[in-house]
Amino acid sequence: MKPTLPAKLLQALAPWHNAPAWHIAYSGGLDSTVLLHLLAGLAKTQPLPPLHAVHVHHGLQAAADAWPAHCQAVCEAAGVPLRVMRVSVQPGASLERAARDARYQAFAEAIGPGELLLTGQHRDDQAETLLFRLLRGAGVRGLTGMPAQRPLGKGHLVRPLLEVSQAELETYAREQSLSWIEDPSNGDPRFSRNYLRHHVFPVLAARWPQAVNSLARTAGHVAEAQGLLDELAQLDMQAAQLPSAFPWLGLPSLALAPLCDLSDARQRNALRYWLAPLTPLPDSEHWIGWSTLRDAKGDAQPIWRLADGQLQRCNDRIWWIPTKWSEFSDSPLSWSHLQTPLQLPGNGQLYFSGHAPDGPLSVRYRQGGEVMELPGRGRRDLKRLLNESAVPGFIRGRLPLLYQGSRLLAVANLARASTGQGDDWQLQWAPPTCDQGLS
């Protein structure tokens, strides 16, 4: 016997019954209205987590001003608390993308640790996504379609209706006499997804009635293939994830030589896997940046600029540097012994281990031409000391320098670049963490 729609939903959400709360992304449209009705009904007979609904008001069209009131009335009838969130959509090349980004940012703010956001995307949406991405030339990861679940904010986004067709949702809505909002923009063919929905899929379905099911099934096959590629990437990454000589930097980095031993295709696969949590991935044409970085001469310090940061190569290692991580103030700071640790604007913290040297002390940054008087070594140029320690070039300008009056005493974290570090004291620097620097 074919399972009912409530049974399908309950089975899809079985792994999440211990979540602190379930939040329904409720636009007021057909899909989310059915999802809300189903969950409210199940909550009367099943021990579900507390239900909440979230309606995001984009303010993009006049008709939308009436939607929160409709959503409020439906939620009150269903006994589900509603939160209305108003967002500003940033103008850009794609209004669809901008609205989606604003919407999911609001959703991320609405859910707490371990909580779920449930959305109403269904099998037809999955087929639509696959065809849309295929036409844009997406890679294997893009052609996996929408995942059934993924992290969102401090919780997770779950799509429990991906195995359900739009026809099933429409049948349920009619049988239950549900009312929902028809968004006027859903018929506008200027939006790519609407064009596919109203002009392309009807033609495909006329010739291939199972087109939607077949495309959604293909997305599942591609997702399985992507899983195998991820497993290969994890194996290839093991040799490249050797610890760096500067663990205190806290930046993601990889040894270059193990990557170069792989084929070009496996290099790209491993890097895609590594970069995916850090930045939007480049399209095929922009991977030339990786080749340039990889093949540069040993004494070069090439840069591959990506959407949310850059890869730099230093001393046969590649480093990920987030855009925000690079932003800091290099203004000098006076340092009183009472200030421990010393907060460096945009540059972490500075502190002593052991007894601090006598003042007056100040913290400055490299300008060029600095020299130090080192016990037993005489006057040494700071640039040479940094070269001896193989300090990556991108960090040299933000290494804190400790001065006693006009005398350079120490370079943070470099025991060999100090006038007196040893048993008495050491200058320690904790740079911004990855959480502070990564987007």
Automatic annotation (TrEMBL):
It is found in: Cytoplasm. It holds the Pfam family ATP_bind_3. It is an enzyme of class 6 (ligase). Keywords: ATP-binding, Cytoplasm, Ligase, Nucleotide-binding, tRNA processing. GO terms for molecular function: tRNA(Ile)-lysidine synthase activity. Ligates lysine onto the cytidine present at position 34 of the AUA codon-specific tRNA(Ile) that contains the anticodon CAU, in an ATP-dependent manner. Cytidine is converted to lysidine, thus changing the amino acid specificity of the tRNA from methionine to isoleucine. HAMAP family: tRNA_Ile_lys_synt. The N-terminal region contains the highly conserved SGGXDS motif, predicted to be a P-loop motif involved in ATP binding. This is tRNA(Ile)-lysidine synthase.
